[in-house]
Design goal:
six-stranded mixed sheet; 6 strands; binds zinc ion; 237 residues
Amino acid sequence: MIINVHAGHNPAGKVACGAVGIINESTENRRVKDEVISQLRELGHTVYDCTCDNGTGQTDILKKIVEKCNAHKADLDVSIHFNSGAKDPSGNDRSTGVEAFVYSAASEAKEYAEKICQAIASIGFRDRGVKVSTTLYVLRHTVAPAVLVECCFVDDKDDVELYNYRDMAAAIVHGITGQSVQEPDETESAVPGEETPSGDKAALSRVQVGAYSIRANAEAMRDKLLADGYDAIIVQA
Ligand SMILES: [Zn+2]
């Protein structure tokens, strides 16, 4: 596929930057955007980065993004944003979640939008669904089918705790292409059985420190244990 990808708004700290909550939209959408681009390229797709980092204001940024998008004949334009307005700074154990916008219900982008939402929901975010908007500048003015993804909420503690840019990017890439890049899997050489020293496996007593439904959380705990000098591995059961 040929795909245009951009992060919305100016970079953090400049005029017309994105939403700020527990995390900063303009920082995180650029992390996600860079990772989406690199994963799509690894999968063999042609990708153009249409992000604007030097807009003089919101209108200028939008115009520059659209100019870059329309300079290429693409199969899809992907606009990466983070949402705000959840007003849940201390967490209520519920994700506010992902939503995506397309220009019309008949847009070819709608199916991509649905798959992107489903993929992001599969890592734990609530699926707020695909919405139609004829007022969003980027959707209105881009030539290729376009989807605007609001990955999750910057002001929802539950979303922020669940979020990491790599998994978010992988979900977006999977939503667009149905493909995933091969994860560099540190645990591959440490599958149960291989990690055990020679001897009777049944005689080993294992100490477990946590069980996580989100892989990233398991990785974070493993990294913490490794950093503390423990010989930790992740076992998928
Ligand atoms: Zn935004």
